[in-house]
From TrEMBL:
Site residues, Important for catalytic activity: H230
EC number: 3.5.4.4
Chain's gene name: add
Domain of life, source organism: Bacteria
Gene3D superfamilies associated with the record: Metal-dependent hydrolases
Cofactor note: Binds 1 zinc ion per subunit.
Protein residues bound to Zn(2+): H18, H20, H206, D296
Cofactor(s) essential for the protein: Zn(2+)
Protein name: Adenosine deaminase
Length: 357
């Protein structure tokens, strides 16, 4: 079998469920926006700045990895800058062959220059719409859904959950919590999750990245998460060997087909996995968990959806059938309505992979 090349992977349709808006800016855009607001960057050379983000995020610790977001969040404090960053995000994902993306960000982090929560959300939604339209004009079809994130160390999750529900018919498709995981269990935000369940709304929870099984267990069994952001530490509940044995929690996650939003490069940078080749995605796929492949933060990892796929092809020898499986898993797990998911699977994904294979 001829190994699959990067160019072909870019052309293949891909679905992305876990991508942070403030973790995916173009370095050149950060430089321009920083000059407008007098924000001091480590360097104003876009190439060097891109490398600075990757090297700084390569820290082995989630807390230190998250410090790099100070520079991206600082330049995303006006409606115009949020609009631009969101439009470029849609354009960049579409150019990479992503046909469906859920992009998340935390509105509460963008209020430093007078915007309201609603103002932040409206600027981002308008930016995604503009970028989607520009991509379509170039012949690149993408659909972008927005997830609103609440920061887990803060106390605004109920407010952000209500904000998400308010915009559910105009582009917001789900809710999430993010930020440092150790010391900030999901149950701190139980009120918000119970509210969302009563509203029949969708949410994912960052869990099982920098903290292990208790975090995953709470996210699912206390909070009712539809999906797990990362969830990579679920392997702590699997006894490896010729015939791996699943514990109660990992068996539950697999039986219920709870999607795992795995982010290989990001996990290596924060120390959640030793390398791509040793990333638990290999085992989890073999065991048929509902595995999806994601970018997390394209800027901090110097990556793209196609690059993450290519890394897995290199490390695990995956072919088109595995790449299609990841893509369909993601599409099945999306927060948009079932009929819309199905039409992307049947009309876009399957015909394209049939030609590739
Ligand atoms: O992998 C991650 N784990 C936990 N939190 C994260 C990760 N990536 C980004 N953020 C946090 O989410 C916020 C909103 O997008 C970012 O500002 C960052 O603090
Ligand atoms: Zn994340």
């Amino acid at each position: 079998m001829v190994p699959i090349g990067m160019e072909e992977i870019v052309k293949a349709p891909k679905a992305l469920l876990h991508d942070h808006l403030d973790g995916g800016l173009r370095p050149a855009t950060i430089v321009e926006l920083a000059a407008e607001v007098d924000h001091t960057l480590p360097t104003t050379d876009p190439g060097e700045l891109g490398r600075w983000f990757v090297e700084s995020a390569d820290s082995g610790s989630l807390e230190r990895y998250l410090e790099t977001f100070d520079h991206t969040v600082a330049v995303m404090q006006t409606a115009a800058s949020l609009h631009r960053v969101a439009a470029e995000c849609a354009l960049d994902l579409a150019a990479d062959g992503v046909v469906y993306a859920e992009v998340r960000f935390a509105p509460e982090q963008h209020l430093e220059r007078g915007l309201t929560l609603d103002g932040v959300v409206e600027a981002v939604l308008a930016g995604f719409a503009a970028g989607t339209e520009q991509a379509a004009a170039k012949g690149q079809q993408i659909r972008v859904g927005t997830l609103l994130t609440a920061m887990r160390h803060a106390a605004r999750s109920q407010e952000i959950a209500e904000l998400a529900v308010r915009y559910r018919d105009t582009g917001v498709v789900g809710f999430d919590i993010a930020g440092a995981e150790a010391g900030f269990p999901p149950t701190r935000h139980l009120d918000a999750f119970e509210y969302l369940q009563r509203e029949n709304f969708h949410f994912t929870i960052h869990a099982g990245e920098a903290f292990g099984l208790p975090s995953i267990w709470q996210a699912i069994q206390w909070c009712g998460a539809d999906r797990l952001g990362h969830g990579v530490r679920l392997v702590d509940d699997i006894t490896p060997g010729g015939d791996p044995v699943l514990g109660r929690l990992s068996a539950y996650v697999r039986d219920k087909r709870i999607p795992l939003e795995l982010c290989p490069s990001s996990n290596v940078q924060t120390g959640a996995a030793p390398s791509i080749a040793q990333h638990p995605i290999g085992l989890l796929r073999d065991l048929r968990f509902r595995v999806t492949v994601n970018t997390d933060n394209r800027l901090m990892s110097g990556t793209s959806m196609s690059r993450e796929m290519a890394l897995l092809v290199d490390a695990f020898g995956y072919g088109w059938s595995e790449l299609q499986w990841f893509t369909i898993n993601a599409m099945k797990s999306a927060f948009i309505p079932f009929d819309e998911r199905l039409s992307i699977i049947n009309e876009v994904i399957k015909p394209a992979y049939a030609k590739l294979a």
